[in-house]
Amino acid sequence: MEKLICRNFEEFRKQEGQDLPIGPWITVTQDMINAFAEATLDFQWIHVDVEKAKHYSPFKAPVAHGFLSVSLISKMLADVVEVQSVQMGVNYGLNKVRFPHPVVVDSRLRFMGKVVQIEDYGSNGLKVTWGCTIEIEGAQKPACVAEFVSLMFE
């Protein structure tokens, strides 16, 4: 798997406007969906009731919560980019999020993205805006399209 590795902020700043490597596939299992339901207290049957979803869902199977795909962005970014001088990174927020296509249980997802903007943040930090697309294997539309903002500190 290809990974963008920058030694420090100076090198990383040169990536503004650049595409990131494509991430590895991640399978969204029913166990993941159930764990997300437990963590968020969102137990809608379309996510967690396998038998009911088989009979009544238009997808004939459970689908993942849209926010599960958003929550994978941090992990997916870590798979494709590393700034070695970073001591700490935190989520700052989301500017835009859309869920164009449902993620049916056992779908495979992967990350595609770009470094949209890099701004100074305080004396030792950067605020980074990432353009993120989470692709579903075999689907015409992505699971999630988001503009994600994170902070990095040296």
TrEMBL record:
This is MaoC family dehydratase. InterPro entries: HotDog_dom_sf (IPR029069), MaoC-like_dom (IPR002539), NodN-like (IPR039375). Residues 15-122 form the MaoC-like domain. Gene3D superfamilies: Hotdog Thioesterase.
